[in-house]
């Protein structure tokens, strides 16, 4: 366990404290708030996230088949959120025990890796949903061609593998080290490797958060313009309403959960590299620690996306909650304006009026 002094002050001195640079000035930080804020918030996210996402996975696996492209993205998003919250109990113990990690270096590496792996997978799956929605509204024929379930499944597999590959260096950076009577599980790395870790983290943030965030904003900007100026024969009002809900919910998740965390973490790491004034660094440290629970809260907000934008999901959940027999699964999309069964065939021509599909399905989820 940590000593009384280390529980009250985190001092930036030449020591194995998480990510502290050996050349930094001596700065005394009172981080007592962290030992209350993080375990309590992570425990709440674990209970709520598991309680919301586990039934979602069950519904997708047993009552919402066959999946369309949107259901495929949503299932993988729910799976990512579930794996994410499963990484939280050890962190709850770690911070409740005042930075003491008794579980070994291997589990420390795996827990930190799982934390960020599923965080960035969630970002990319939300981006996939956004692009799919954009195609359904602005390019419906392309949505028919590229929105097939098997292509969505391959894209989801690529997301898992790409994010895991990008985060492999994190397994080498993250480690444990003794600090008095405690064993620290570094969220960053050893002090002597902190500079390299910051460069690695900046590249990962730009690739796995900056680019997806920009893509999402562009897609939703173009979608909003089309929804407010619908073309003749455009989607019915119910489909446009679902689209607007998706825009609001996904942007809310990005704005509330992901953006504050990444901005404050970047400022915090940069301030430590530049060795700013201790008082300024103390303020930045507090703000950064307070945004970390927000990054976890996305696993509790994502199920709202399924509930408010997926009519099929909502009907099945209502049937199960009321004790009735679930309705027969349907293959129509709940987010795309057009949907196509995987075994259907279409004749693609230059204009939408000339194209023909043997088994079309309307957007009636």
Protein architecture, described:
This protein has 365 residues and is mostly helical. It has one domain: Rhodopsin 7-helix transmembrane proteins (Rhopdopsin 7-helix transmembrane proteins), CATH 1.20.1070. Helices cover 66% and strands 6% of the residues. It contains 13 helices and eight strands. A two-stranded antiparallel sheet has the order 1-2. A hairpin with a 2-residue loop joins strand 3 and strand 4. Helix 2 packs parallel to helix 11, helix 3 packs antiparallel against helix 5 and helix 5 packs antiparallel against helix 10. The chain is globular. The N terminus and C terminus are likely disordered.
Name the features.
mainly alpha, Rhopdopsin 7-helix transmembrane proteins, 6% strand, disordered N terminus, disordered C terminus, transmembrane helix, G protein-coupled UTP receptor activity, transmembrane, P2Y4
- Architecture, according to CATH? Up-down Bundle
**Largest sheet, spatial ordering of strands:** 1-2
Name the poorly predicted regions: 1-25, 329-365
Shape annotation:
globular
CATH topology: Rhopdopsin 7-helix transmembrane proteins
| Structural class estimated from helices and strands | mainly alpha
Gyration radius, in Å: 23 Å
> What is the residue-averaged pLDDT?
78
How large a portion of the residues is in β-strands, by DSSP E?
Answer: 5-15%
Largest sheet: 2 strands, antiparallel
Domain unit count = 1
CATH C-level label: Mainly Alpha
Distance between the termini: 54 Å
CATH homology superfamily name: Rhodopsin 7-helix transmembrane proteins
Tally of separate helices:
13
User: Tally of extended strands?
Assistant: 8
Order of helices and strands: HEEHHHHHHHEEHHHHHEEEE
Helix content: 55-70%
Biased composition (Polar residues): 1-13
Protein name: P2Y purinoceptor 4
GO biological process, one term: cellular response to prostaglandin E stimulus
Transmembrane segments: 40-61, 73-95, 115-135, 151-172, 203-223, 244-263
